[in-house]
Write a structure and sequence with these properties.
Length: about 70
């Protein structure tokens, strides 16, 4: 299961070409900093619990996620 830390490492590897720079990134959902050990399933259940069940998870998360620390 993917955690925020796993996603940060992937993004650092992809964006910077250096996986050790993952600490330079922060991931937010609904203007709230996501903890490094949060799984995507946990975020779905706790941050999107008021969304209709027939709405795909990708859609609400894409709207509400942003990453800081890229420069």
């Amino acid at each position: 299961m993917a955690t925020v830390n796993t996603i940060k490492r992937y993004l650092a590897s992809t964006l910077f070409g250096d996986i050790s720079r993952y600490n330079d990134l922060d991931i937010f959902c609904n203007n709230e900093l996501m903890g490094r050990d949060y799984s995507m399933k946990f975020i779905e259940k706790t941050r999107c619990r008021n969304k209709p069940k027939d709405t795909p998870i990708k859609e609400p998360l894409q709207e509400n996620f942003y990453i800081t620390g890229l420069w």
